[in-house]
Amino acid sequence: MLNLPFAIPVPGRHQVGGAPDGADALLIAGLAAVAPGGVLHVARDDLHMARLTDILRFVAPELTIIEFPAWDCLPYDRASPHRDILARRIDALTRLAAIPEGERRNLVIVTTVSAILQRVPAPDSFAAAGLIIKRGQSLEQGRLIDYLVGKGYARSGTVGEAGEFAVRGGIVDQFPPGTQMPLRVDFFGDEI
Fold it and tell me: Which of the four, 82, 143, 156, 188, has the lowest number of CB atoms within 10 Å?
């Protein structure tokens, strides 16, 4: 448990001004420990979001911290958001949808002003969108490929970025959002 040099206010909406860097992280960590629905912190930009997340992970490693970044382009721009940004946003929304509402204590969502203004799909679209694969499980390779294509993965020769997959014989490499490295699924017939 985090020992703070000040009292934690009651859960609710709070505005804090003039706090030195790091003090805001202590306040947020203290609020997350008592707020049954978790804490949403809106940082002014990506740099402040990243700094706050790093400090929170240092001072309160027991917290579940979800970063929700903004797109790196403007709406209606000709350029699409970078795949890494899309992957981080999808991962954040999927992780948030997986946490039952009554178990959100010690949860901190850190986002930016730009990110919170952008529309997102309904939580239901992320709640049951995953596919769980286990060693020894029976699954047709075509079903996995159809699932990946249906979820917006791009087929490529080799997997290098989140949201890509490659098929070589009985091997399907995929790079799901929220992972640091691609994953490999090796099929022996229909058995994983």
Answer: 188
